[in-house]
C-alpha cells in the first residue's frame, strides 16, 4: 500500500479513536496500537508510533478539556508525575523484552472492571471530588503498562477512578492532560532506545486525532455522568473480551 493511502487510513482511524477517547476517556492507544500490530508492525515500534502521535493528540485533547473546565489540577499532578516514571520504565522494558505478559494481566482486569462499571450504573452514589489515596500508585502502574503494552493508560486510570465514585468528566479531562506528559516521556525513551518510527503513520494519527479532539471534549460535557459511566463500562468490557479473543485464538 502506498504511503499516502496509509496516511489517509491512519488519519481516519486517528479521528475516530480520538473522538471515542475524548468522550469516554479511553480507547485511542488501544485502537491505534491494535491496528498497527494487526498490520505486522513489531510491538516496540507500534507502541512508539502511538506514543509519538499521542504526545500531540492528547495535548490537543487535554487542552480542550482544560478550556472546557474538565480538568482538576491536583488530580492531574498526582497522576502525571508517577505516570512519567512508569512510562520511562515501561518503554525501556518493551525495547528489550516481549510484551506478551502485559496482555495476560490487562485482559482479566478490563473484563472485571467493565462488568463492575456496568453494575454501578444501576446504583446511585454521591460523587467525590477529592483525590483518593493510591492515585499516585495507579498513575505509575498505568504509565508502565501503557508504554509496555502500547495502550491502557486511560482504561486503567479512568475505570478505576470512576469506579471509586469520582466525577467522570473531571477524571477524563485530568487523565487526558496527564497523558500528554506521560506520552512525551515514553516517546523520548523510545526515541533513545529504538529510533524513529514511520513518519506517515505518525502524521496520520496526529492529524486525525487533533481534528477530532475538540468534539470529544464538547461531548463529555453534555453526557450525564451515569451515561458516561455506562459507555465506559461497555468500552472496557469490549476491550477485555477482544484481548481475550486474541489470546485464545
UniProtKB/TrEMBL annotation:
Which InterPro entries does this UniProt record tie to the protein?
MFS_trans_sf, TM_pro_TauE-like, TSUP/Inactive_protease-like
What is one GO cellular-component annotation here?
plasma membrane
Keywords carried by this UniProt record: Cell membrane, Membrane, Transmembrane, Transmembrane helix
Residues that span the membrane, as ranges: 7-30, 50-68, 75-95, 101-119, 170-192, 199-220, 226-245
Membrane topology reported for the UniProt record = Multi-pass membrane protein
Q: Which Pfam families does UniProt cross-reference here?
A: TauE
What superkingdom does the record give? Bacteria
SUPFAM superfamilies cross-referenced by the UniProt entry: MFS general substrate transporter
| Subcellular localization(s) per the UniProt record | Cell membrane; Membrane
Q: Which family does it belong to?
A: Belongs to the 4-toluene sulfonate uptake permease (TSUP) (TC 2.A.102) family.
Which PANTHER family did the record assign?
A: MEMBRANE TRANSPORTER PROTEIN MJ0441-RELATED, MEMBRANE TRANSPORTER PROTEIN YTNM-RELATED
Query: What protein name does the entry list?
Result: Probable membrane transporter protein
**Species of origin:** Dyella dinghuensis
